[in-house]
Amino acid sequence: MAYRLKRGESVPDGIRRIVLGEIDSTIEGLRRSGPSDRDEAIHEARKSVKKIRGALRLCKPELGNIYRDENVRFRNLGHHLSEIRDAQAMLEVFDAVSRDHADSIQKDAFEAIRRGIESLKREKERAIGIEKLIRNTSGTLRGARKRVAQWPLQKDGFAAISPGLKLTYRRGRKALAKAQREPDPANYHDFRKRVKDHWYHIRLLESLWKEALQARESSLHELETWLGDDHNLVVLCELLQKEPERYGGAQQTGLFVTLAAERQKQLRDDSIALGLRIYEEKSRRFVQRMQKLWDIA
Predict the structure, then answer these.
(1) Distance CA 112, CA 155 (A)
(2) What's the pTM?
């Protein structure tokens, strides 16, 4: 089911439809998953939880305390799923750095690092219990499904979403400015979260003007991916520096961290440049432009 509001559909109906669709597809995906595709099912479940939180943020001012409670529930659920997904993400970003330098380092130069990450992933899976995680996730989502109909969503039209849209966009501009001013990992990670919120909101509004908003959605997706890779590299490098002996020793891990720093610099430079283009408009002007598209649609 498309993650977007439909023309001719009320905002309350659309938000409920989208959230219920994400819940149902996640439950079904987890139910059908087997050992060979469990990582992908968990990854998709985690993405759906984030999409639900994105839809919630669009209606945050109207939901009030219910937003707070539901956001905490879905955030906690996402954290549980992340414990499994994070190790897989580290493998993916490790492979990306290795590919970048495939011509300048020996093929198996970092093999001990990869084995160490794979071992860590297996340990986490055993400690958490994949089957238990899937059962608990499905149960939590079934409980959430029953509450969706009770969400006090009544406002319709652009007035229903404009406060949440403006708030999220403004927070993105502030996070970008802070990452520029204080370029530490925490600020880049916060910027990524704000970019993801705005990305989800543009996806929800994509039907207003498909060509223009698809281009913006594509840029936001690219920006979020770069910032996500940066965060995963931060986590991976901290892990390697904390326990170098587990990952082949200080020489191997030190070299990898040096190469990762080069990739991080490029990711951050590209992210700031693209972010400045995406967040060029002030919040009020951006929302006014979206309202014009809404009125025309």
Answers:
(1) 56
(2) 0.91
